[in-house]
Amino acid sequence: MPSQWERFKQSNIAKIVIGYSLVVWVLIQLIEAVLPTFETPLWVAQTLTFLLILGFPIALLVGWAYEKLPAQSTDTNGVKSKPQLAHATPKKTLVLVGLGSCAVIGLFGFYMMPFIFDSSQFDNNVSSARSRGLPLVLRYKMVIENTGVLGNGIQSHTAISPDGRYVAYSHITPSTFDIMLHDLTSFEEPKELVSIPRNLSNGFPIFSGDNQWIYYHLNDQIMRVRREGGSSQTVVPSDADPAGLAINNNTLIFRRASTRELSKVDLNTGEEIDFSTMYESKEPYDYSWPTFLPGRSKILATKGFRDSGETSVEVIDLRNGDISLIAGNGFHGKYLESGHVVFGRDSTIWAQPVDKQSFQPNGDSAPVIFDAEVYPTWRWANFDVSDNGRLVYTAESDANGGGATRELVSLDSQGQESAFENEPAFYLFPSIDPTGQQLAVSVVEPSGGFDIWVYDKVGKTFGRRSFSGDSIRSIWSADGTRLIFGCYEGSICVTNSDGTSNQTELFSGMIQPTPLVHIGDGTLLLTHGTPRKVYQASIDASASDIQPEMVLTDLQLAPSENADAAISSDEHWIAYTSNETGRYEIYVRPYPSVSSGKWQVSRQGGRYPRWNLENDEILWWDIETEKIMSSRVSINEGRNDELVISFDNPSGKFETSYVSSQGTRSWDFSPSSGESFFIKDVTSDNVIADQIQFHLIEDFLTEVTALAPAYIE
């Protein structure tokens, strides 16, 4: 008779114990190796291991039950014998083996589970897996509250110091553009470095290489302020495009507005020279967003600037002016110490591996950041990287790309508001036609560009009038049949207001032109240049081709910046704004003989005057107090039949809290209907609408190396 041990070894129970233990061991090894690769939570591995242990006694019971099944045998004569058990394992043996095995495996799971699947050990495995291609880096957010957006949808301008300690950013209010400094190593609140007027040309902070200075744009100037604060210093006094700068000790490179090319200035001597002159080139170096590469003998720059056609990120050798391509269809490139150039492309941040010595492409480009604030039309992306690899960027919002955040509204003479019946969008710069029935607006498109749309108040239709993605700030021709607007880079375009024609470029070669008013005799008033001034020119608004010559005449309304010109309905008076006193105020002169008189109308500041002679008044927007102001107008005959104008003390007509822009008129008034037209932020209970989210990524160099590997290290 075989012993019980021999009978057990031949039974199904023994096979199940051995086989199940081997399978469980293999599965645990697979769980430990595979799940961290997919960043599976720890509880998944623990649950699977528990289920494997729980399955052991169940398998024993199944095996024991199988042994109890009767089995028939046949003798040598073919006679079937009485059914017997296959292997009769005694219950006592089964119980002892089952309890012992469960105890052993249970103790194994109890003692080994914390070691095999300890959270720190599991995280180390995740890190190890990431090191093979998906590095684990620290990400966190910094939220700034109670801020607005610029007219083009930009939430902020962001820069990080080379040592990665400080973040400079812009805080936007209805009238100011505040450059703030945040110390990432401190719990103290960010401090204000400088407060400047809010417009699309101001801001764009950049740190100096020694972390001590923050450079920024102010109108057509380049300024700098110490990191500790204090008074700002003028670095470039005029003619600077808001297109970034590169600074290396006492050498500064920027884009000159008048020549539309890069220029180098020696900060010690003040000597300036354009790149085309320096390298004896017939073609201008039409680039923007320059930045020095390691070694300081080459710079990285973006071909073109704002709606200038095709764009690319290129390297310019400062020793001889040679140019080499880094990334086509890219813009706003920045070099990383990992040997990568990161840049904007479409609505994404990409990375291009480059050789660390020659800075030539050394691998395939790849997208690395998908939720950053990127504006292809402006050739700009809101991100920056420190020398040690700390990345900071602003997260995209509804404002970026024409989010449905604003609506068109009208106010009657009593200040009663009525909303238009079209869908919300990101609207800018309303302009009412002479009849008061059609409103033209600029709409921010998903790409960050602009186009002109017209809302018909009678038919309640909303139609598109331009399709180039770079059309903005429209006005109506005197007869209301044409729309005149800024287009491309430095041009004025025109199109039929009913949408029956394509846009036509009338004039080009200007600096940030903005049409203001078209008079019946064909005269166009516009602002142009830096600083902005009001000019007049004679145009043919019905032209279907670019006009060969345009003579701009400076009206010489003020020695300083002047803008926002408006002509009275009788065409005898011109109202405008000027900052000659240090603050924008409303002034009036006779027209066209502007030198024969001058009156200051506002007392506490004002922008965007509109005439309402039908009601003997002039209106303007006091952005500081958020009121539409009014002054009574009296016009009488004086000596020699000359007209004499006088104004009563200003008074508030009604309060307003609508969208405003410091650069261009943000409202309009129709004398024929007595209505005022504004753009209103859509009311929301979601406080996120008033916040900016800055995303910070530590050790971005490791992540970008894994996402965009080089061919040859």
Uncertain spans = 114-133, 399-404, 684-689
Beta-strand percentage range:
35-45%
Question: Number of helical runs?
Answer: 7
Q: Quick one: biggest sheet?
A: 5 strands, antiparallel
CATH fold descriptor of the domain at 406-689: Neuraminidase
Describe the structure.
The protein has 7 helices and 53 strands. It is mainly β. Among the domains are: 4-72 and 83-131, no CATH class; 406-689, TolB, C-terminal domain (Neuraminidase, 6 Propeller), CATH 2.120.10.
List the helices and strands and how they pair.
Blueprint lengths: L3 H6 L2 H23 L7 H26 L2 E2 L12 E2 L5 H26 L2 H13 L7 E7 L12 E3 L5 E7 L3 E8 L7 E7 L5 E5 L5 E6 L2 E6 L6 E4 L3 E9 L2 E6 L4 E6 L5 E3 H4 L8 E6 L5 E6 L8 E6 L5 E6 L2 E6 L3 E6 L2 E6 L12 E4 L4 E2 L4 E2 L1 E3 L5 E4 L11 E6 L5 E3 L7 E6 L5 E7 L5 E7 L4 E4 L7 E5 L5 E6 L3 E6 L7 E4 L6 E5 L4 E6 L4 E6 L14 E2 L7 E6 L5 E6 L6 E6 L8 E2 L6 E6 L4 E6 L4 E11 L5 E5 L3 E5 L12 E3 L4 E7 L9 E7 L2 H8 L6
Antiparallel strand pairs: 1-2, 3-53, 4-5, 5-6, 6-7, 8-9, 9-10, 10-11, 12-13, 13-14, 14-15, 16-17, 17-18, 18-19, 20-21, 21-22, 22-23, 24-25, 26-27, 27-53, 28-29, 28-52, 30-31, 31-32, 32-33, 34-35, 35-36, 36-37, 38-39, 39-40, 40-41, 42-43, 43-44, 44-45, 46-47, 47-48, 48-49, 48-50, 51-52
Helix pairs in contact: 2-3, 3-4
